[in-house]
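Morning F.,

Quick status update on the modeling queue. The single chain you submitted on Monday has been processed. Sequence for confirmation:
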Amino acid sequence: MTSHHPDTLSLMEYSAGTLSDPHALCIRLHLDHCPHCRSRVDALDSLGAMIVESQPREPIAAGTFDAILDRIDAEPTPAAIVMPRDPRDALHKLLDTDDLNSLPWKRQLADASVFDISDYFPEQSERVVLQKLTAGGKAPSHTHRGTETTIVLQGAFVDHSGVFNQWDFVVLDQNDTHKPVAVGHDDCISLSILSAPLKLTGTFTRLLNPFIR
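Structure tokens below.
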């Protein structure tokens, strides 16, 4: 059962369809396993539909529909979208694997590895990564230069604010300093969206900050 959830504003933006693809994916994965948040989004969807229905209907000018079609035809054909629109097992379909541990992980520090999937979202300016902590492993103490949105995909980790299990959702920023530790028998794998590089705060690891992107 999930214990950490997206805030109301994030759920409203998801319901309105205004989130970027990676942020929407994080929330969709959470919703697939959280009845509480799913019922809140259902309520927001219903509210949005009621608001639309209550708006006065203006007549559409003659030729408007044809003009829209002409504009669409004039636009260049977009590249194929890699991310599937079917929310079920979305990340597994995106990466074409059911075993996240089999991905070509790049070790960063000690127990921490990363697999950058930003290229799957070419229209996004934020960095999208999978992060892995080996079972029982510790990430270096760090804070954030921007925001980091994370959902736990496998295993669990603990930090100063509690235990984050599979499908838990968390947003951190420059006001948060933590040192996650993977708990349980499985490697902890999470999907994270970073608006800016993290900032190491340890006595020695901070020397590596100039090399972190």
